Structure formats: C-alpha cells, structure tokens
What we know:
By secondary structure, the protein is mainly α. The protein contains seven helices and three strands. It has a three-stranded antiparallel sheet.
Amino acid sequence: MDLTPATREFILHWGEMGTKWGVNRSVAQIHALLHIMPKPMTAEEICDVLGLARSNVSTALKELQSWKLVKATRELGDRRDHFSSVQDVFDMVALIVEGRREREYLPTIDALRRVTKEAEADGTPKETRARMTETLETMEQLDNWYQDINRLPRSVQLTIMKLGAKIARFLPKSG
C-alpha cells in the first residue's frame, strides 16, 4: 500500500506530536495510520506500510488497545487480527483525556492531598502550606468541572464548545 504525501505527512506529524505528549513515536504513528484508514489493517500490513519491526507493532497495538483507542476484530477465513482505531474524533479525544486523567491527573490530586495533610503536622511554613492548598483546591475544581461536563450529553458538550469565547461577552470584564 502506497501512502499519499498528505497521508504520510499526517502520520509523521501525529508521531511527532505523540512524542511531545509523552507517547512513543511508533505508537502514535500506528494510531494515526489506523485512524485515517477506511478499513481495519493486520499487524503485517501496518509493518509493511510504516516500515516497523513486527515486535514494535505488536507492543504498540497492545498499548493502544489498553487505552481503548484500537480494537482487534476477526474476519472469516483469516486467523489474523485486524486492527481499527476509534473513528469518531470526539470519542477518541474523550478516551485520551479520561486515560490521562486516570494515569496522571488523579494520582497528582491524591499526592497533593497527602502532602497537604502532612504539611499541617511537619512544620511546613504557613505560606508553603497555603500554596499547596491552593494548588490542590484548583486542581480539584478543574476535575469537578471536567466531571460535570463529561456527564452531559454529547450534543450539549458540542454546543458548549461551539459557544467557546462567545460566553466571555456575557461575563463582567476584569481590570
């Protein structure tokens, strides 16, 4: 399978962005390929198209499956797995955000809760405790906001997104 220049550029850019997001370049490139392909692909096809080692592709596919971004299906008469990405971009972003929340954000909130409590008893200066508390409270507020928005139906979420900065016109100006 030959990739068009635009397809190749999309995959390369997604791989570069992946490294900036803390994701292995090959994992991000495989995800990009599966995301834009119109039909599922076998691991062998992914290897051929991207020029990656089979072991690298297998590891990346397992990682993408653990994030629920890629699923494996079977076809009659073929013993191989066929892999496809979540096609709906909104669903894909929601899975990524939720995964990062679980792996990164919530553990940070838990750590801040522990150190803030510990700081009350270990002689941490008042100003430092106040900063820790402010950080914890802000992160908890952001997480609560995220959860509130996440509970809304998608149509409402999309409406809120489309409103975007227009909401600022209805808010008091600062300064």
